[in-house]
Amino acid sequence: MRMLARLTRRSVTATALGALLCGALLGTPPAAPAAASSAAAASPTITVPPAGSHGFPFLAAAEDLGSFGYTESEYFISGTATSYAKSGLWTPDGRWNVRASGTAAYKSRLLVRRPADPAKYNGTVVVEWLNVSGRLDLSPDYWFMRDELLRQGYAWVGVSAQAVGVNGGLGEIKGLKGWDPARYGSLVHPGDAFAYDIFSQAGQALRTPNGPDPLGGLPVRTLLADGESQSAGFMTTYVNAVQPVSRVYDGFMVHSNSAVAAPISGVLADTLLMPNPSRIRTDLSVPTFVVLTETDVPGAAIARQPDTNSVVRWELAGTAHADQWVYDVGNATVRKSAGSAAPSPDCAAGSAPFNDGPGHWAMNAALRHLAGWARGGARPPSGQPLSTVLRDPVTGLATGGVRLPDVTVPTRTLTGSRDTTGSGVFCVLYGARDPWNGDADAWDRHDDGDPSDPSFPATAEPVLSRLYPTRADYVGKVRTAAQRSVDAGHLLPEDATAIVAAAQDSGIGG
């Protein structure tokens, strides 16, 4: 095993990622004082939005949801939200107390996708805290978990929880209100200090609707909260500080958070006042599933904690914070609403392509595990810690972690980091892949831009025909690896079938 020197231009990855995770936090305006104690979340008023000038919601799916047996609709929720402040000392164990510190009127929105046929609904609603790192609402975990959500009959609800998504920021699109004033002009967001309670009230609206039912009468058996990237930082704080007083959600997916949680105040500078590390509290009666990619691990490893009956953590080998799958699934939807103003990876011409690893397969499995766990089922299996520094000397792949067939029967180097020279700010999130083709690619220079061999001495890429002399040999190894991952609980059987089918159609072997 060799230690690859990834501490040159790639050393900015953790810093840049942290800036992206925190980038859309806004300062909180003054608010009315609130009572000293908090109760369970209020049930907001639900209304139907006007058609607006576009005639569809922001982030409306570009794909035909009807072909999957799904419908899409949008609702407004409004009421009085509460902000919170720290109560007592906050320490790295996540057992954080809060007090109510202010109230303010708000009006935000829910984007709802649910089975059209009630018989296809599985009783579980996934509520995603929409990500605003791009200064507008995005749904990365819907895209990561799209296949599992639609084939298993989940309802999915995206919540515009943060101020920049509603009010706008530095981006070309000035939030929902700027994108379609006729539809969203009545929305009111008082600041990110209130985002936590807005998210609580969104969940409560699904349980006890006060107005039109966003789920069309579908009963809520299990309500799961979910957030990815910056939203996962807020989700960490929500789990530790707000869930104990709101008691709205039955389980949590925290995907790609960093070592430090988002501030309860909603003020960016207050990140410096948050415990470092910010671990997940282990005394809740509801479960939390933390999933990290290779991109995330360098900045989050200090927050590692043992798995318990209420907290499980996976670190995924060969994955990236965003990847080719998420780009392919989500890009048309983003462009349908945002057009040329859509956030772009903007990676430099001639640089390595995006990571196309197994992140979505792992997220499918994680979701199914979490749903069962939240209903009182078995705790998900554990995974090994991932090392992004110690890498296999032949393949360039990270060692340890949850390892799916893409990395146990490899055909390319997959990494969560990349050289971002000459690239846009979001490029760093997409990791890289390097096909094994005899170092024939423009980036195969045995330097920091070469995913498979970023340091001297130069090492040639593996030769696929030597690794897999025949098609049958390759497919057989993939089938065996897939079954091992299924047996370990890290891969779903139907996804294993898809992986084997892709191997049969790949042309690899011989």
Automatic annotation (TrEMBL):
Superkingdom, natural source: Bacteria
PROSITE patterns listed in its UniProt record: TAT
Positions of region (Disordered): 440-461
Native organism: Streptomyces poonensis
Protein name: Alpha/beta hydrolase domain-containing protein
UniProt domain Alpha/beta hydrolase: residue ranges: 48-501
Stretch forming the signal peptide: 1-34
InterPro entries: Abhydrolase_dom, TAT_signal
Keywords annotated in UniProt: Signal
Pfam name, any one: Abhydrolase_10
